[in-house]
Amino acid sequence: MTQYVLIVAGGKGIRMGGDIPKQFLPIGGVPVLMRTMDAFYAYNQDIQIILVLPHDQQAFWQDLCRKHHFERPYRIADGGETRFHSVKNGLALVETPALVGVHDGVRPFVSSDVIRRCYAEASQKHAVVPCVNVVETLRHVQEERSVTVPRDEYRLVQTPQVFDATLLKKAYEQPYSPQFTDDASVVESMGMVVSLIEGNRENIKITTPFDLKIASALLEECSI
Ligand SMILES: Nc1ccn([C@@H]2O[C@H](COP(=O)(O)OP(=O)(O)OP(=O)(O)O)[C@@H](O)[C@H]2O)c(=O)n1
Ligand SMILES: C[C@](O)(CO)[C@H](O)COP(=O)(O)O
Hints:
Elements (H helix, E strand, L loop, with lengths): L2 E6 L17 E2 L2 E2 H12 L4 E6 L4 H10 L7 E4 L4 H9 L7 E6 L7 H14 L1 E7 L4 E5 L2 E5 L5 E3 L3 E4 H7 L11 H6 L6 E4 L10 H13 L3
Parallel strand pairs: 1-4, 1-6, 4-5, 7-12
Antiparallel strand pairs: 2-3, 6-11, 7-10, 7-11, 8-9
Helix pairs in contact: 1-4
The structure holds cytidine-5'-triphosphate (CTP) and ligand LQXTBERG.
Pathway: Isoprenoid biosynthesis; isopentenyl diphosphate biosynthesis via DXP pathway; isopentenyl diphosphate from 1-deoxy-D-xylulose 5-phosphate: step 2/6
Enzyme class: transferase
Protein name: 2-C-methyl-D-erythritol 4-phosphate cytidylyltransferase
């Protein structure tokens, strides 16, 4: 079955700050977004990549591609007001039947093994999310008080989140809700069950300047 991935890079990067959008910042000399797209080509050279980028950043991106001789095939869709709207714009280019993954453009360290297992599981279970265990103690904060909660009952959620494309397109016909912080939450709100698989801990979301430091360190350690 055809495999798609929507690489969403339509955000504002407010927590990162700075003049250059975080998806274009270099890690080891290569822009984050190119590394992320390369991770999917490394997994499958035939995967259909749809890059979702704010319209006003697309010319800058094309310049960057020329400068870095980045010549991978992909199609482009305009970013939207929220991640939900960006995904919806990208999904408009997806033809069914297919499997479609949604991956944050700022998660360049996803491993080929995790991508492969997400798509393989989605071909059986229809909705798959990679996640990792919580390794610190977790407290639930309620107004002035807080309590420790059993951390084994929680997971940290990553991307790519992979779905049967017909299912995901239907889910994204729902009206937007601020509760939709990822794609699984959109699918779940239709009453669907989401399967979890083990992610890779290096698959961090580059969100703050601190994460850039971690990313540089990871680059030295990993060959992914
Ligand atoms: N309107 C939006 C908002 C987010 N994203 C993407 O969703 C991913 C996860 O979002 P996040 O890391 O929070 O990025 P930003 O929204 O850019 O960050 P911030 O909240 O700090 O502004 C990123 O790859 C981001 O580009 C998107 O495609 N369209
Ligand atoms: C999709 C996501 O990366 C899963 O962990 C996350 O929910 C994105 O959250 P953000 O607040 O848009 O960064």
